[in-house]
UniProtKB/TrEMBL annotation:
Keywords: Membrane, Transferase, Transmembrane, Transmembrane helix. InterPro entries: DUF6311 (IPR046278). The keyword Lipid biosynthesis does not apply. Pfam families: DUF6311. The chain crosses the membrane at residues 87-106, 115-134, 184-201, 213-233, 286-302, 307-325, 359-379, 406-424. Residues 34-334 form the DUF6311 domain. This is Glycosyl transferase. GO terms for molecular function: transferase activity. It comes from Micromonospora andamanensis. It comes from the Bacteria.
Length: 574
């Protein structure tokens, strides 16, 4: 919990007016999602779809990172405290909860030492890649169900309990689908590798337990499918669904080889300067050289006497190599050497939506378990708390000289301490205009019409105006926005396809000067406003406010000054 507070400390300095300086638009998107959950509960609307963004087409929330498993239960808190406060509360809480469930998994099923479980659990909750995703992507730190899912998978083979274990697994999987499907997929891939590795290393035991395991797995799968059949159908076939991403933009994001031994930015040993060399990646494997060295030594020492360590070695090697992507990258430069993903079709279902670098999140999990095993092995028979059951293949207790214990604890500590997280970088963001927060907009926006904020929200522009919608509880719909939706060919693209007027606004912002406006531009503006079902166009304080005001005046005529905004009432035109 303390680490969760530390990570979010810069947000709490001014929680209502600060966002991630690394991913400010993602931060605002997730604030918007918390508001969406509250709006759906308050108005009893289908949470799988919304027309409050990208009006009039709307957004398929199942086809986006909607975090419905969190935003809906927390709706009362969001209505009470606002999405900014709930975002910061949840971000730190999700990190701590993941560490907590990881500690439970390790202490109950893999190690005897509570200290070992604490070290491993802390790493699993606050690993470099996880903390880096906390910069605006709380769905990737919401991993508190994954240790429970892994435990339940490997309890499926318990004689006489396959039905209960299967039902619990099905419930957990169904819930995880509404938190983060990608992390669930990575967990499923890891479990598959573990099962295959176990079967190869213990073929007789695996065969003896195969029937019970299959029965439990079938029960869990059937229940999860039953509970999520409609939402999954809606994700791929509902309104505003799509097939893959245009150009397979994620397919080429492989991990840099040097990243494995690099200290991540958001830790006590990291600096921002390193991003200028390797590049601004997700830092999923920025473990630093001490942890990499310790992991290699620990695996060498443990694999001969620990089945769990041998399986961890398989996970580390397989997923680390697979994460290198279609072309090997070294210290920020492409080497021309083909990577493993060069042999995988970019349009393969599921694969086309995956980022190779994120496969190393499985490596991260394996290293967290390895840290716990290493500490447990160092502790030996002196561990104060016996495990409820002796883990199969776990290292055996042996008395060692005291200095060996001290060296072991010191080595693990020196590998982990440099990775302690620091407060995430945050930057101030302008609050919405008083015209928006006071409700002065209400007389101008009747039911069925939209408020068009300028800049029009997109994945590049309009971060403050997207927050207008979030911080007013979605009381008015807006056009465009920050999401993934279909283009004319049904492929997924970021944001709404630009219309002539939104393109003109973005070009004017980038150039900083007013272009020549033609009658055709004015005609297109009216057509676009009619498409958006606009009732009013609103321009608040903005670095480009003068040129944007001149542009909209040239397109729509003279504005009104209402409170602290410029306003164009277009109800009589569209």
């Amino acid at each position: 919990m303390l680490l969760g507070v530390v990570v979010c400390l810069n947000y709490w300095a001014d929680v209502n007016n600060r966002v991630s300086s690394h991913l400010p638009t993602d931060h605002s998107w997730f604030e918007w999602l918390f508001a969406h959950g509250a709006y759906s509960v308050q108005h009893l609307e289908n949470p799988l779809f919304t027309a409050r963004q990208n009006a009039p087409d709307g957004v398929n929330m199942m086809a986006n990172t909607s975090l419905l498993g969190v935003t809906l239960p927390l709706a009362p808190l969001t209505l009470l405290l606002g999405p900014q406060v709930v975002y910061a509360l949840y971000l730190g809480g999700a990190l701590a909860a993941t560490a907590g469930t990881s500690y439970w998994m390790l202490s109950r099923h893999l190690v005897r030492s509570r200290a070992a479980a604490f070290v491993g659990g802390a790493f699993l909750g606050f690993a470099p890649g996880i903390v880096h995703h906390a910069n605006g992507q709380p769905n990737f730190v919401s991993n508190f169900l994954l240790p429970l899912i892994v435990v339940r998978v490997f309890r499926l083979a318990e004689p006489g309990r396959w039905r209960r274990n299967g039902l619990v697994l099905g419930l957990l999987v169904a819930y995880q689908i509404f938190i983060n499907e990608e992390m669930l997929l990575l967990t499923a891939m890891a479990c598959l590798v573990i099962v295959v590795a176990y079967a190869a290393m213990r073929p007789r035991l695996a065969w003896a337990r195969a029937g019970t395991f299959a029965a439990g797995l079938g029960t869990g799968g059937a229940l999860a499918l039953l509970l999520t059949a409609y939402p999954i159908w809606f994700q791929f076939n509902g309104p505003q669904s799509y097939r893959g991403l245009q150009g397979g933009v994620f397919h080429s994001w492989g991990e840099d080889v040097v990243a494995f031994v690099t200290f991540p930015r958001d830790t006590i040993a990291g600096t921002e300067a390193v991003e200028a060399t390797i590049g601004m990646t997700e830092q999923n494997t920025w473990f630093g050289w001490p942890l990499v060295l310790l992991s290699v030594v620990a695996l060498v020492l443990l694999v001969r006497r620990s089945l769990v360590a041998r399986i961890l070695a398989v996970l580390v090697v397989l997923f680390s190599v697979a994460a290198l992507g279609p072309e090997i990258r070294f210290n920020g430069e492409l080497t021309g050497i083909a990577g493993p993903w060069s042999y995988i079709p970019a349009d393969l279902p599921l694969v086309e939506m995956m980022m190779p670098t994120r496969l190393t999140l499985v490596t991260t999990a394996a290293l967290g378990v390895l840290l716990a095993l290493a500490w447990d092995a160092v502790a030996g028979h002196r561990s104060p708390v016996p495990a409820p059951r002796a883990p199969e293949g776990a290292a055996t207790d042996r008395r060692r000289p005291r200095w060996q214990h001290l060296v072991g604890y010191a080595a693990i500590s020196l590998a982990v301490l440099p990775l302690l997280p620091t407060p995430l970088p945050a930057e101030p963001v302008d609050p919405p205009p008083a015209f928006i927060t006071s409700g002065a907009w209400r007389p101008y926006v009747p039911d069925g019409r939209t408020l068009v904020p300028v800049p029009i929200p997109s994945n590049v522009h309009g971060l403050p105006t997207l927050r207008w919608s979030a911080l007013t509880g979605h009381e008015f719909p807006i056009p465009a926005g920050y999401f993934i939706g279909p283009n004319l060919d049904g492929e997924g693209v970021f944001g709404a396809p630009n219309r002539p007027t939104s393109t003109l606004i973005y070009q004017t912002m980038d150039a900083g000067e007013l272009p020549e406006i033609s009658d055709e531009n004015r005609r297109q503006a009216v057509e676009d406003l009619r498409f958006w079902r606009a009732s009013v166009v609103v321009l608040g304080a903005h670095p480009r406010e003068p040129v944007l005001r001149d542009l909209l005046t040239a397109l729509l005529g003279a504005p009104q000054r209402v409170d602290d905004v410029w306003l164009w009432d277009v109800r009589d035109r569209v």
